[in-house]
Amino acid sequence: MRLLPAALTILLCMVAGAMAQAPRFEALGPEVSDRQTGLVWQRCSVGMVWREGRCTGSPQVFTWDEARGLGRGGWRLPEIDELVSLVDRERSRRGEFPITDVAAFPDLAGRRGDPLTYWSNTVAKGCMLGDVCGFAVAFNVSFKGDLLNFTRKVPLFVRLVRNGAKNAAAASAPVKSVTADGRFEIDGGVARDRKTGLRWQRCLVGQDWQAGRGCTGIRVRLTQDEAFAAEGRGWRLPTKVELLTLIDRDRKSAPMVNAEAFPVTLPAYSDLRTRDPYPTGGHMFCVNFSIAYHNNCSRTYPIPVRLVSDAR
């Protein structure tokens, strides 16, 4: 066996080490690709333009409703777990601001006078008078895992994201299967009920389905008004009768629902919201999957939500 010269061996080790430590972000002009998540981000905040190697102009602020309407051509407002993925916790621990990669996002460098707070698309529980709120991340303050939430009319900054090639391929080719009891057809993050024809989101509002990982992200609790605000793109709050159809009375333990179709474990005695008003004012029908029966819940008390889509 022929041994490599010592100098060549050292060189090969250095090259291998450099390849293993490839930077997380790959700059692509006005975009930056995140090798860790597969997402592609706009390098400049909305309102700025990438020109001659830098972000020019001034970032604009938007209310939450305005921010949710900015997406075009695949670009969208990020979910809270996606936005939090940009936080560099080591920079935060060392007290270095902003707490993200300033080479990837140069528009944040030098903006010391404001908290650099950015909207996410994720609904948060009401923080004032039952108003609808959204989660946000501030990049100019220390991050300790606590999520910020603001009422929908507060103006904040926006950075848009889109799925990269890896994400798009996974989304376009979901794994289809049928639950063991034959009741539900599984198509990625959607479970179609063969009995009713309804299509259900497998994850609760605030979470996203990822192949191989299941429901990811942060499950949120919503007031009734917030739950109605979470509707869209064909997804809506279920009626009491529709939600009751998910109760699996053959199960021997709570929650009484098909765990293969709906893998998220609810807290003990947790209710899910419906769109139907309860005869007593200020309350709505909800369904409790621990006692396998309908209940009544306050409009203003936040509880989890599962959305449904009509048969097609």
Automatic annotation (TrEMBL):
Keywords: Signal. Residues 1-20 form the signal peptide. Residues 32-162, 190-308 form the Lcl C-terminal domain. This is DUF1566 domain-containing protein. Pfam families: Lcl_C. It comes from Rhodomicrobium udaipurense. Coiled coil: none annotated. The lineage of its organism: Bacteria, Pseudomonadati, Pseudomonadota, Alphaproteobacteria, Hyphomicrobiales.
